[in-house]
Amino acid sequence: MKLQQLRYIVEVARRGMNVSEAAEALFTSQPGVSKQIKLLEDELGVMIFERSGKRFTAITEPGKAIIESAGRILREAENLQRLGKDFSGGDTGTLTVAATHTQARYALPLAVKEFVALHPNVQLILHQGTPAQIADWVEKGDVDIGIATESLDGHPGLVTLPVRQWNHCVIAPAGHPILQQSLISLAELARWPLITYDSAFTGRSGINRAFERQGLEPRVVLTALDADVIKTYVTLGLGLGIIAALAFDRERDTGLEARAADHLFESNTTRLALPRGVFLRRYEYDFITLFAPHLDKRAVERALQGGVDVYQL
């Protein structure tokens, strides 16, 4: 039995039994993957995949248990490599962080600046994606740390920890009639065209629920993946914007004004995601604490070892 064979069965399962895609992801040939899986099945004495001709069509019952066990073995093998690097490689390596636009643009810069100064020999790589993409990347091991608001909880392969809570605000061009109200109502908002986040992003589900509870139908004329796009079209007069409050800067966003919306929409929690069971290198703990000071090494270790999200804001 070889680790490479375990990688093959895990990747084939991950790719929906598509051997060609798995082979491409693993930089090998389709016949090579099929051959090694057959050798592993012969060694174990059970079929891992059901077949129709040469195609894999499903995972057998014993195959499900084998693939789950293989995933644990591969994670521990990766942990051994990370542990060795942590003690032999010193303060060198790569840290890959994935975040949504709002987090990357408005919440992460200070932590990134401090981390680069603290660990100049660590290559920091940043990826931007949707919350669903980020959860998938972390779970697959493509990135080390994920940061988002939506879609990070509910993934069994992830440990998620709360970073901070935040609220939305309503933005409008200076002089807009709605700005005359100190507390904007949902009924008033529903009278105007609205511009807000795409349904997969940044608390959009909470916005939808708030209108639904009052039996209101918002007139959403444009959805966007990030706050900067929303602000651009609000400036053009296309509608009122609903964005994360941390994305509004009175000095930078000239021509726009903001009003608090924490009385309208539920608060949101930014969460940090890690692969369950991962061994973190020292500089990874440093990055987490720089971004979220309440998440010190002890708190993160408790979450990783306990298998539950033990820390609450």
Could you characterize the architecture of this molecule?
This protein is of the alpha/beta class and 313 residues long. It is built from 12 helices and 12 strands. It has helices at 3-14, 19-25, 30-44, 61-88, 101-107, 109-118, 131-140, 186-189, 204-213, 227-235, 282-291, 297-306; strands spanning 49-52, 55-59, 93-99, 122-128, 145-148, 158-166, 168-173, 193-197, 219-224, 240-244, 256-260, 268-275. The strands form 3 sheets. Strands 4-3-5-12-6 form a 5-stranded mixed β-sheet, with helices on both faces. Helix 2 (19-25) crosses helix 3 (30-44). The radius of gyration is 23 Å and the shape is globular. The relative contact order is 0.13. The model has no long low-confidence stretch (mean pLDDT 89).
How is the largest sheet built, in terms of strand order?
4-3-5-12-6
Q: How would you sum up the global shape?
A: globular
Spans where pLDDT lies below 50 across 5 or more residues? none
Quantity of strands, as a count: 12
Portion in strands: 15-25%
CA distance, first residue to last residue = 45 Å
SSE pattern = HHHEEHEHHEHEEEHEHEHEEEHH
Major beta sheet summary: 5 strands, mixed
- Helical residues, percent: 40-55%
Number of helices: 12
What is the average of the pLDDT values? 89
Rg value: 23 Å
The secondary structure category is alpha/beta
Which descriptors apply to this entry?
globular; single chain; 313 residues; 12 strands; 5-stranded mixed β-sheet
